[in-house]
Amino acid sequence: MTGSADGYSRRMARRRALLAYVPAAIAYVRKRRDLGAPRPLSVLITAAAPAVVHAALPPGRKRAAAVWATHMWAYKANFEIPYDRPEELRRRLTIDAPLNSDTAIGLGTPPGQRLQRRLRRPPELTILDRALTYLYYTWEAAPHAVLVWILRNEPERFPLAAARLGVTFDLTLLGYWGLPSAPPWWASEREGRMDREVRRVVFEVGAELKRQRRPRIDHNPGANPWAAMPSDHFATAVMTAMLLSELGPAAGAAGAAYALALGTALVYTGEHYVTDLLAGLVLALGVQAGARAFCD
User: Where do the structural domains in the chain lie, given as residue ranges?
Assistant: First the structure.
């Protein structure tokens, strides 16, 4: 009994020591700019957190959920880290390439500009502005809610589902680090493209919801405004739709409808070009094909 108790005590001590890494990492990442921390070090610290949580907790649903939550925190941090040095990122910023591509897709007028020109009535916020913004907000929960459902109801599917969705999230970071790209609203408002007609609708509706004064020009919240290519929203929505299709045709159809609706909202609100969405689509399809090849 004593040996068993000692073994349990050692396991608990090891678990507590490992789990202490997570709040320390979170505190470090929050203060990284004040500390002048090297970006590679910040990336390593965040990337290690999910592995540490996996090593610390016993197998089961709780560990799976904790690892996923830690992974998403790490993703968010690495989404923001490139913008720690905006002046350096600005020198590599791509503005016109996606705009020119969308202009070709829209037969002379980018689809987002065409939609806002026809359907918006600035400075008024319309029902459509609000509805598509609310749809945009649902993305914050939708992919994770699907994973939670899979974890609770079909846990044997969860590891591969989480891996595919996680890799889809992570691969978008290659674009945000290597090829910073201005979204339509930034190109329009800050650089005068598209006759300054494209506005960041999501930020304006968000300010209204918070009962704040709506900004006239500055719609940049400061996280990373140049993380646009590929669209993480659309890539992960497409991957979520593919995960749902494995649960049944009705679930797959609902997932596909959601992805298409979200894509429309992303273009209308000025968050992404159609080109960004196509890049996200290719990324998600590539991850799915890679997963099938690996499993076969």
Answer: 1-81, 85-295
